[in-house]
């Protein structure tokens, strides 16, 4: 059976779809799993051995061009984990016989098998809702998946090369201070600077600050702030897969709830992550696909006194890593 799985939004959202794709493949290894993804997620999708084919939803292409591509892929069943009108109409025009999606938004009228989930109630995490959708075509499917879900053979080589280049001799704690995706809570740069300097003072770990390819300005700002400190500043310019391989060997990855957090957890790196104090932005909804025992979540309160109290707790937890 040729099964199309659809998740065409950002990095973190795509990663929450991977357990569902894995489960569909494991249910019957003869299934061909075709992933429809955004261009930014192509390289990562191609590294997953449980994904057989990758189709890119190019923003500049028309709905008719996308539908033509899907029709040529000869899909038997589609499972749309997060829908929009574009991908819904394209699947309808492609003539896919069984089209499954959550029963939300006006786009649901283009699917012929709709599943009520009410994700806004946050009864489970996003990746768990995605896994639940796989029961629509296969009620007896096993929704467990391996952890870490993504592993590489050459991570040690890449890590050693990075450490040699940057004269790193201790285990690495990484800070990713930027925002992204649905993240709506974070420490400010002053607070991050305090956390970084406190950790450096303990002199137990090497500190690396990571930045996305479009965060050059943020990198320069942090370099000014920490010019007297022994910190490595890493601007990711070699692609998401190389970045995933590198951070898989880190001791800890500290960030807000953004795509890089999901990526770190995907490859088995322990995480310390900051979430908004609301249902939509909470860890209950956006915990990542990695081992929960390796994830430490903090809900940042809007109340200033409580925020200060939380900051002190984070500082102590960081110093006790």
What report would you give on this structure?
- The structure is a single chain.
- The protein has two domains: about 130 residues, Glycogen Phosphorylase B (Rossmann fold); about 160 residues, Rossmann fold (3-Layer(aba) Sandwich), CATH 3.40.50.2000.
- It has about 325 residues and is α/β, with parallel strands linked by helices.
- It contains twelve helices and twelve strands.
- α1 packs parallel to α5, α1 runs parallel beside α10 and α7 packs parallel to α12.
- The termini are far apart.
- About 40% of the residues are buried.
Entry summary:
The chain is 38% helix and 19% strand.
Helical/strand content category: alpha/beta
Please provide the count of β strands.
Answer: 12
Query: Domains counted in the coordinates: how many?
Result: 2
Strand content: 15-25%
The tally of helices reads 12
Q: Secondary-structure element order, as H and E? A: EHEHEHEHEEHHEHEHEHEHEHEH
Structural shape: globular
Gyration radius over CA: 21 Å
* Main sheet: strand order: 3-2-1-4-5-6
Contiguous runs where pLDDT drops below 50 for at least 5 residues = none
Summarize the main sheet: 6 strands, parallel
Q: In the CATH hierarchy, what is the superfamily of the largest domain?
A: Glycogen Phosphorylase B
> At CATH's second level, what is the architecture of the largest domain?
3-Layer(aba) Sandwich
The average pLDDT score comes to 95
Helix content: 25-40%
Task: Say what the CATH topology of the largest domain is.
Answer: Rossmann fold
Specify the CATH class of the largest domain. Answer: Alpha Beta
N- to C-terminal distance: 47 Å
